[in-house]
Amino acid sequence: MAHRVDNEYDYLFKIVLIGDSGVGKSNILSRFTRNEFCLESKSTIGVEFATRTLQIEGKTIKAQIWDTAGQERYRAITSAYYRGAVGALLVYDITKKQTFENIQRWLRELRDHADSNIVIMMVGNKSDLNHLRSVPEEDGQALAEKEGLSFLETSALEALNVEKAFQTILKDIHQIISKKALAAQEAAGSGPPTQGTTINVTDSAVNTKRGCCSS
Amino acid sequence: MEEMTISKGNRHNSEGTGVLPRAEIVHDEHPLSLGKTSVWNQFFQESETVEQIDRDVKRTHPEMQFFNGDSSDALSNQESLKRILTIFAKLNPGIRYVQGMNEVLAPLYYVFKNDPEENNAESAEPDAFFCFVELLSGFRDNFCKQLDNSVVGIRSTISKLSQLLKRHDEELWRHLEVVTKVNPQFYAFRWITLLLTQEFKFRDCIHIWDALLGDPEGPQATLLRICCAMLILVRRRLLAGDFTANLKLLQSYPPTNIDHLLHIANKLRGPIPY
């Protein structure tokens, strides 16, 4: 999907931000990519796009992040944006129980439209509003464990854990891809790649409809 | 599946011989019923709509004191916007409220409310409501998920824009859609659904809407021509850009001389391609 012009990164990972309307997806994105936060930001219509390049385990990773509208009406449109995504941040608002209850709906949405190997991280946002909390952190943790997702509570306002959330998911994706590449090389009989060998997984892993772990 | 289970359970209740006669509670009146005629289901859906409207009205032009802040004027304007959107949602059960309608309503309400004639300004709410209904009668299909894949839905409108660009600037069209693979949905979806209200400063948006609403070709055709002109206006940057650069440019369109933009749009007249 992405047209690669510059070669200043080793991998390009497409990540989608999903979750109910008003949980703070856009602010998580702006905090991560521009270190900005806007208390009353406009609602997202369709999709918004941003990138940031960072170092993960010695590799230069370009994270291409797609922020999607939360409302039901936009699901049909946003499903096209799951194409090629290797990671998803599934966001709820710790002060709004309904947004947590809808996590299951979003997981179903991902199962229907995204690659089956997509790496999913669940994020409970607005942890700065602890006095208004209606979803205990343990509940988030428990659901994440049950569904096999990684989990963090974040505050885009206080810049708490946002960086860590992206670092975690990007690291997870990178590890899967490295293992995949290694396995592919071994299967091809060429042994593990020596230092300096270029592992050409970017095209198949990121730029096609299939995700990082599809074989 | 769920509905079947519920109706089964219901039948069981009505046949039961318990102390309380449950037979009178018909399926649709059950508080957990998902049936369309269920008053409870309607109640829950409505409160969801009202919550969504409330959330979005608070996020309408947060940079403008007219719409935002704690002043009594701002609060009263917000109440007006909420009432208009809620009544529209009730009168149009097929669409109800869709995010973004607040952005389409805002310029109308703003203009009426700032009428120098005090008498007129007082009627800003009903006037804006009337014009909002009128305006959406031409654009409501864009908000309707069920029509997404039909000839009147948003996807078809977007492909008309794509055809228009191809006809007027094939080189740019090819670079955008074939070479850099920028799907027009990624930017034009918002341009078209919101009638460009999130792409420009509010003042510029009013300027564009003057052309949009005053053009004898009608707002739909005019909107597509203006969108096409927006692409042509930044063609040099687009032709030099890759996927990322182009998408970023089109998702945050640079400040523009609006007269010039409208001048270019004016030169693109002709039948809309299909």
Automatic annotation (TrEMBL), chain A:
One of its GO terms (cellular component) is endomembrane system. Pfam families: Ras. Its main location: membrane. It comes from the Eukaryota. GO terms for molecular function: GTP binding; GTPase activity. Gene3D superfamilies: P-loop containing nucleotide triphosphate hydrolases. It is a lipid-anchor. It is found in: Endomembrane system. The keyword DNA damage does not apply. InterPro entries: P-loop_NTPase, Rab_GTPases_membrane_traffic, Small_GTP-bd, Small_GTPase. Keywords: GTP-binding, Lipoprotein, Membrane, Nucleotide-binding, Prenylation. Belongs to the small GTPase superfamily. Rab family. PANTHER family: DRAB11-RELATED. This is Ras-related protein Rab11C. It comes from Oryza barthii.
Automatic annotation (TrEMBL), chain B:
It comes from Oryza glaberrima (African rice). Transmembrane segments: none annotated. This is Rab-GAP TBC domain-containing protein. GO terms for biological process: intracellular protein transport. Coiled coil: none annotated. It comes from the Eukaryota. SMART domains: TBC. PANTHER family: RAB-GAP TBC DOMAIN-CONTAINING PROTEIN (PTHR22957:SF690), TBC1 DOMAIN FAMILY MEMBER GTPASE-ACTIVATING PROTEIN (PTHR22957). Residues 30-216 form the Rab-GAP TBC domain. Gene3D superfamilies: putative rabgap domain of human tbc1 domain family member 14 like domains, Ypt/Rab-GAP domain of gyp1p, domain 3. One of its GO terms (molecular function) is GTPase activator activity.
